[in-house]
Design brief:
Blueprint: E1 2-16, E2 23-25, E3 47-48, E4 51-52, H1 53-61, E5 66-69, E6 93-95, E7 101-103, H2 109-119, E8 122-127, H3 134-145, H4 151-158, E9 169-172, H5 185-197, E10 208-211, H6 219-229, E11 243-250, H7 266-293, E12 300-308, H8 327-342, E13 347-353, E14 363-366, E15 369-372, H9 374-382, E16 389-396, E17 416-422, E18 428-434, E19 441-447, E20 454-462, E21 488-489, E22 494-495, E23 499-504, E24 508-515
Helix pairs in contact: 3-4, 5-6, 6-7, 7-8, 8-9
The structure holds alpha-L-arabinofuranose.
């Protein structure tokens, strides 16, 4: 077994890992909102104000810190006034992006903020810059946030809500280079400047404004947008632009051959890890461009859509993007989350796509049943990093998995990924992933003062082994077997004079808490 050493410097704190790095995305797409999250009173599914109780409980458990809503592509066709007022008289529209189904607007602004209140999470609203007017966006801001007498605050009160809501983030458009308007960066930059000028925000702490950033590795977009929108010598955060979004999906062999969510080869497992690791390279390059304009790091990178995008499950509506979720999703999510932690000096938020029943989900539902996915458990294991300080850590003895394609978008990926943080109680949380589909790793965690710490908790996520799948790569939870993959205690951590020693099995995710 190969031995890998991780040196954790417990006295060297780096950047704050903002809780929003663990954010979610919920779009009006397929069964993401309707059925998955929000049900009708007559559905017989236990709910509070339409929000499923089982789902809300599960989301609270992973401490969802922020939700991005209402889209996605849907955002640039969403007219918020359709979604307020008495439900029975709300306008019914066609969801043109996602399956052409009827959208009855029964989940709107009030319902979204009710959800955020129930979960105790922040709101990230994505405005419509594609087909919506400046005035519409201006009014939405006033409707949500204005605390005083105004036409929009009066309307809000008439609809049952006197107090304004707290909105921490506001996005100006979505994928404006694609479904959001097919714009050139210069055109979007001009629009961004215009729309943001009329976003009058009277909140004590104004919403962070997020601009549409690049599609994955489109560095030209970032460069051109910043050239037109970066304002030197003027306050940036809570000012002109506070975040730049990046979208990145992992399609196994490309858009036309996304691969199966469950029937994959061991080689395709590695390729998925390589695709996941490409996100690190992409973010590093965008960060380099940002560093040139904004060395003080006032504009955050906001990865507000990312995740594995496999073929839609057979027999389901292809426009609904429903896919199963296996240990492959769990390990690739953990790998990316460790990368985000390590880049938390620049990354201020990420929102995995999407929360329920769509793409790489946390939860799957079927009628009144609900299943927690392997990716859900990774968010559960990583939740202690939220709002903690990243600790300096370095790895030696790591090695790259064999490269499968001569493709720069699938770079060599190391076997092990890690990150460590210290919370305000002084506890150290370390998260590890083993990307190898076959090698167990012997891991030694070196610290300067190991004597003062004990391993207070250690937990592992690993697929069950079978003859066909000895390392449980394809293990997943289904409605028939909802608890096949779950977090298990790991009891074999040994302590010696230099630190802690453990075995990280192939294709697994681990979380270790060290306490004084
Ligand atoms: O998450 C699904 C879709 O992917 C989003 O609506 C869009 O922004 C992206 O292309």
């Amino acid at each position: 077994m190969k031995t890998i050493e991780i040196t954790v410097k417990e006295d060297h704190k780096k950047s704050r890992i903002r809780k929003e790095i663990y954010g979610q995305f919920a779009e009006h797409l397929g069964r993401g909102i309707y059925e998955g999250l929000f049900v009708r009173p007559e559905s017989g599914i236990p709910n509070e104000d339409g929000i499923r109780t089982d789902v809300a409980d599960a989301l609270r458990e992973i401490k969802v810190p922020v939700i991005r809503w209402p889209g996605g592509c849907f955002a640039d066709e969403y007219h918020w006034m359709d979604g307020i007022g008495p439900r029975e008289s709300r306008k019914k529209i066609i969801n043109t992006n996602w399956g052409g189904v009827l959208e009855d607007n029964s989940f709107g602004t009030h319902e979204f903020f009710r959800l955020c209140e129930m979960l105790g999470c922040e709101a990230y609203i994505n405005g419509n810059i594609g087909s919506g007017t400046v005035k519409e966006m201006e009014d939405w801001m006033e409707y949500i946030t204005f605390d005083g007498e105004s036409p929009m605050s009066r309307l809000r009160a008439e609809n049952g809500r006197k107090e304004p809501w707290r909105m921490k983030f506001f996005g100006l458009g979505n994928e404006s280079w694609g479904c959001g308007g097919n714009m050139f960066p210069e055109d979007y930059a001009a629009r961004y400047r215009l729309y943001q000028s009329f976003l009058h925000d009277s909140q004590k702490e104004p919403a962070e404004k997020i601009a549409v950033g690049p599609a994955g590795d489109d560095y030209d977009w970032t460069e051109k947008l910043l050239e037109k929108c970066y304002r030197r010598n003027q306050p940036q955060r809570h000012g002109f632009m506070d975040g730049l979004s990046v979208h990145y999906y992992m399609y196994l062999h490309g858009w036309d051959d996304k691969g199966s969510a469950l029937s994959f080869t061991d080689e395709e497992w590695v390729l998925t890890m390589q695709r996941a690791y490409y996100l690190k390279k992409i973010l590093e390059k965008h960060a380099e461009i940002l560093d040139r304009y904004d060395p003080e790091k006032k504009i955050g990178l906001v990865v507000d859509e990312w995740g594995n995008w496999f073929r839609t499950e057979e027999g389901t509506n292809p426009g609904f993007l429903y896919q199963q979720n296996s240990m492959r999703d769990a390990v690739s999510a953990g790998l990316n989350l460790n990368v985000f932690n390590k880049m938390s000096d620049r990354i201020t938020m990420t929102n995995i796509a999407q929360m329920i029943n769509v793409l790489q989900s946390m939860l799957l539902t079927q009628g009144a049943e609900m299943v927690k996915t392997p990716t859900y458990f990774v968010y559960r294991m990583f939740r202690d990093h939220q709002d903690a300080d990243l600790l300096e850590s370095a790895v030696s003895g790591n090695y790259d998995l064999s490269v499968l394609a001569d493709d720069p978008t699938a770079p060599a990926v190391p076997a092990l990924s890690e990150s460590a943080s210290m919370n305000e109680k002084g506890e150290i949380n370390i998260t590890l992933t083993n990307q190898s589909a076959e090698d167990d790793l012997s891991v030694r965690i070196l610290m300067s003062e190991p004597k003062s710490y004990t391993a207070a908790c250690c937990e592992i996520l690993q697929g069950d082994s079978s003859f066909e799948d000895p390392h449980g790569l394809r293990a997943h939870n289904s409605f028939e077997e909802p608890e096949r993959v779950r977090i298990q205690p790991y009891t074999q951590v040994r302590k010696d004079e230099t630190g802690f020693v453990l075995t990280l099995p192939a294709a697994s995710v681990m979380h270790l808490t060290l306490r004084k």
